[in-house]
Amino acid sequence: MSTIRTTTADALVRFLIAQRTVVDGVEVPLFPGTLAIFGHGNVTSLGQSLEAHRDQMPVWRGQSEEGMGLAAAAFAKATRRRQIMVCTSSIGPGATNMVTAAGVAMANRLPVLFVAGDTFNSRLPDPVLQQVEHFGTPSVTVNDAFRPVVRFWDRLTHPAQVLASIPGAVRTMMDPAECGPAFIGLPQDVAAEAYDYPAAFFEPRVHHWPRPRPDREELARAARLIRAARRPVLVAGGGVHYSLAEDGLDRFVRAHRVPVVETVAGKSSLLGSHPHYVGPLGVTGADATNALVEEADLVIAVGTRLQDFTTGSWTLFAPQAQVVTVNAARFDAGKHFSAPVVGDARECLEELDALLAGWTCSVEWNERATAARADLDRLVAARTGAEESSVLSYAQVVGAVHDEATEEDYVLTAAGGLPGELNINWSSKGVATFDCEYGFSCMGYEISGAWGAAFARDRGEVFALVGDGSYLMLNSDIYASVLSGKKFVLVVCDNAGFAVIERLQRGKGGESYNNMLRDARGSGSHERVDFAAHAAAMGARSVHVSGLDELREALAAARTHDRTSVIVVDVAESDWTPGGSYWQVGIPEVSESPAVVVARAESDAALVDQRRGT
Question: How distant is the alpha carbon of residue 298 from its chain centre?
């Protein structure tokens, strides 16, 4: 058997380079690049190998380990899980900085390969720089913190383990049901050790993403339930994108005239102009859409994990409504005793289409759905086209970006109040052109995610909308985008605080406290950040605009710039687009505040019809 003697770290790099996949009929690398911040735990072995293979495995310099991981997650989403970025850090704080990003990938079922340096397997030089010692369990390192937030976790303690571990990580990341991040810990001595690897291990392999077919009995049961329904709605989730099932969804709903509502992750499954698209549902959804969903006697949930923002903490679906859940993961398909159809979304819809031949929703139900959509359109027109005042609303900013965007452009946001504003006011012009990270709802994703999406997009612009709070939390990837030449357009909506949480705080009986800058303790609460100057200092084109005309001019100019552009606009802190559903949060059962007592009573009343496990 022919062998190649090389180090553990080099074997890892060579194997990753050899993995290929097919995207749009073209063979491409499965791992097209590595985002890296080097330290003593990964620069000497892994770093040297990456440098030696720099032409086959491009390395992009990160500015923060968390930002790298968030960029990799956004890249995976923008490629619809067809390619995977690698993130590598040193040991200790560099590694733990990636844990938050791993949580984002885990919650959103996105593949990212995290590779972190680790302490010495021999333990001879212990305690080493950046090592945290556990007195009673010396085999534990901070890298064990990744265990709850990855689908695959391993620490290599012998060079030969590469042969089993790394292919196992790849299989997990490519499994439609188990998809999520993987973690590999590289002890510094093991990374440097040599081994005689089979040459065949480094031969190119072309991976094809599997499409598991559904069980016939599950399909038949689902078809019976759908045929018996009088008022069905189809909930399109993020799995529609990852299955590349948008065309299949379009054919299915046109053939059977089923109204479609979208989750945050599923937004842009259909064009906003689609005749059967009704609107967004749930806590960040539109009132008209939610009213339709409440009337439904059957919910067909396709590719969604049915989180609380989708289900209104399980108060949105009528208690007697039945749920058919189409999902590649049985864990998701079986939630709340739904009728599961386990399989690939595209394949399931195609087979259901055949079983439902000749069946369509009633004219009356379609008219009801059309009326709900008309209500949404009137709301959006009123909000985005409102007469301009001294300070713009979020909706007006969203409307201006929407007017500038084309079907080739990509819009991205996360956390805070912008998800609700975009979810309602953004009408998708292109399929799979919307990313709102609302699985982990991670502040800071917006800028790093825009950088990651820019790697994936070979056409159009990436527009990212961010609040001042998220900007201050994580912004260094503006500089990363300038360094790498991966441009995006960032719109900073400055409301001088964490306004959406202040809205929740006050809406549940509390007083405004520690959210808005004006309420901050200390003598500097009047100071404000010059975001445009800050972004310019990192090399971006930047401007602070006042009013819609200046905003529109800045957006048009940003498209012509050769690098990332940052547009800062002041927005009204409490001018929110109305809409949403009930959301269960922990309101004190006893309180001396009358407002809190009222809020608790209102919450208890809303929970009377909560679906509890069924």
Answer: 27
Asked whether the CA dihedral 75, 76, 77, 82 is positive or negative, the reply is positive
**DSSP code at position 249:** H
**216-375 and 386-570, same CATH topology:** yes
CB of 7 closer than 8 Å to CB of 194: yes
Kindly report, residue by residue over 513-546, the tens digit of the pLDDT. 999 999 999 998 889 999 999 999 999 999 999 9
Region for 59 from its dihedrals, namely left if φ exceeds 0, alpha if ψ lies in -120 to 50, beta otherwise: beta
CATH pick for 3-207 out of 3.40.50.970, 3.40.640.10, 3.40.250.10, 3.30.559.30: 3.40.50.970
Question: Which superfamily does 386-570 belong to?
Answer: Thiamin diphosphate (ThDP)-binding fold, Pyr/PP domains (3.40.50.970)
Q: How far apart are the first and last CA of the chain?
A: 57
Tell me the per-residue pLDDT of 143-179, one tens digit each, with 9 for 90 and over.
999 999 999 999 999 999 999 999 999 999 999 999 9
Strands across the sheet containing 232-236: 277-280, 260-262, 232-236, 298-302, 322-327, 339-342
pLDDT, tens only, 234-273: 999 999 999 999 999 999 999 999 999 999 999 999 999 9
Indicate the CATH number for domain 216-375. 3.40.50.1220
Amino acid at site 514: N
Closest CA to 290 of 578, 611, 599, 614: 578
pTM over 0.70: yes
The Cα 489–Cα 362 span in angstroms is 44
Work out the burial of residue 238: count CB atoms within 10 Å of its CB; fewer than 13 is exposed, 13-18 middle, 19 or more buried.
Answer: buried
Residue 279 forms beta bridges with which residues?
261
Residue extents of the structural domains in the chain: 3-207, 216-375, 386-570
